[in-house]
Amino acid sequence: MELEKNAALIIIDQQKGILHPRLGRRNNPRAEDRMLELLAHWRRSGRPIIHVQHLSRSQDSVFWPQQSGVEFQERFQPLPGEQLIQKQVPDAFCSTGLEARLRESGIEQLIIVGVATHNSVESTARTAGNLGFDAWVVEDACFTFDKPDFFGKARSAEDVHGMSLGNLHGEYATVVSTAQILMAD
């Protein structure tokens, strides 16, 4: 496992709304610490950083553009020179120009972190893999929430997270930890 010199860090939906209590119980309480660790490492190394912001089409969403939940959390505020991708669906590639930007920059390796594991992280990683990118999902720098399955059975955030990572690993992406990423550099 080797980290490319131009590997892009993709930070998904680190907006104020994701902290709203109505979203329920979550896993990985230290996920933001891991994301910030990776963000600091990327900034020091000068590698590309892409911040993904969700602008929901649904007025009842925590990411509805007409309220403060859509704004980036202060600790994840993009700096000058860092890229911003705005999306309206979970997949950061859908109608955003992300693929073209990556191809134009010669970026093939993507390190994906953020929220929610089973939603925007998984859909973005699936597309990245399908498009032929070398996608890595950092399991301890993502989190999700308790969620019932299709049959109505309550599933813990840990179960939802684990299943989502299981869906991705080996087929669409490689699932790794923050420590593995930092050691690969």
Automatic annotation (TrEMBL):
Entry-linked SUPFAM superfamilies: Isochorismatase-like hydrolases (SSF52499)
GO molecular function, one term: hydrolase activity
Residue span, Isochorismatase-like domain: 7-179
Domain of life, per lineage: Bacteria
UniProt keyword annotations, A-Z: Hydrolase
Classification via Pfam families: Isochorismatase
Annotated protein name in UniProt: Nicotinamidase-related amidase
Organism: Pseudomonas moorei
